[in-house]
Design brief:
With about 525 residues, the chain is of the alpha/beta class. The model has no long low-confidence stretch (mean pLDDT about 90). The strands form 5 sheets. Strands 1, 2, 5, 6, 7, 8, 11, 12, 20, 21 and 22 form an 11-stranded mixed β-sheet that branches. A 4-stranded antiparallel β-sheet has the order 14-15-17-16. The protein has 2 domains: about 350 residues, Alkaline Phosphatase, subunit A, CATH 3.40.720.10; about 130 residues, Gyrase A, domain 2, CATH 3.30.1360.150.
Amino acid sequence: MLAAMCGAEAQIAPELPRVVVSIMIDQLRTDYMEAFSSLYGTRGFRRLMNEGRSYSQVEYPFASPDRASAVACFVSGTSPYDNGIPSQRWLDRQTLRPIYCVDDSRYSGNLTAECSSANRMTVSTMGDELKIATEGKAIVLSVAPQRDAAVLQAGHAADACFWLNDLTGQWCSSSYYGTFPQWALAYNNTLSPARYLSQKVWVPSNDLVGNFNYFIGGSVNKPFSHHFRGERAYRQMKASPIVNDEVNRFALQSMQMTGMGVDNVTDMLMLTYYAGNFDHASAQECPMELQDTYVRLDKALGEMMDAVESRVGKGRALFIVTSTGYSDAPKSTDLAKYRIPTGTFDMTKAQMLLNMYLIAVYGQGQWVETTLNDEIYLNLKLMEQRNVNHSEALDRSASFLIQMAGVKDVYTSKRLSLGSSATEASRLRNGYNPHCSGDIIIQVNPGWVLLNSSTHEERVSRETYMGFPLFFLGTNILSEKVETSVTIDRVAPTVTQALRIRAPNGCAQRPLF
């Protein structure tokens, strides 16, 4: 009898968390996080590192992530090739106009003119699978400063999704997630940034922050004071640490008003914070602001974790904290001044030259439709009408473009679809989507500027590794530091396994532990 009782007791499953809190921090970097550690308190980053399971060598399984593609990969457990979100924008071949990743004219905005849904993401998410497993009983909420992050992390089945309106400073949403709740309207009328931002002044958190200087360069520390006024006030706020405090306030109000974490059904709260520099400036332009951003971020993390545990009980919440894995590209520097190889590759001129070459080969016609970022879109309808072999045209185009100055490599849709065992080609293939991406992707040499003279957009090519962390803390998590390199698409199967539900339907990765 004693043996039977012990055996039965041993098979009791571990307790499930009452709430899962996912915090995606836009542009969080390991080097900055560690550099400013002497300025932190004990409840934020220090607690995550000391009490949680931490991974220091984390990367995305595809090249050139941005905020949208990073969030989509994180929640779906798969790369853009499968989840349908290769970037924030891509080209609509029918209209030749850029598409924003969450635009959907079928669903009107709540307190915004923007029409949005998650329908362009072609696979399920962690939140979707939690709703399915609990037959809709689980509460899934998403709160983020930016629309793309809010909608993509909410997925298809969330109960509510909120982001900050750039024009009004109020929290807004989409009819895709139902009617706008009355409690959120009340919050907007009394507590939203629209009510306080004009009086807000951002100064260093304390004297220690204002005197510490991690960055070299010989410049004297300059105290800063930023007001948020004028037409760009709310955009500037969303590119500052002030927005993290606002996300916390609204998210905790959301938990309170929706009853998250009060029963035995696991709920999920998806948040996005900001860790980039003020108004997307470089570290050289605003070094003190960047340091203070990390100090305030550390405090915001601690306050959120303490508040959630105060609500549901210590050890009854599971926290996942990580980064979007990219950093705002620095402004173009005159590398030639330092005798570093550099140059400018103009996509508009490349488009014109390639079209002239294809005219010489196949006859008159607009063979190249347009370009977007580093991608070239060919006229597939014209090729079909003229019986031009698409594969042959791609090969000819790649052979022509590779000869241009500054081009490191040229990847065609054919080459990417076939796949490659080479690491760089594999990462490019994972970031490519056959239904959204261009026919040709141009990779320019490091140090070169990729310019579109039609839109005046430019980007400096850099292949520098940027590390970022991943933390698990809370229910059933043992403290451990893991140095092994891992990819972010393994988080979704790890979380769903911890909740004893299915992984997202596009996820083929195994759990981390």
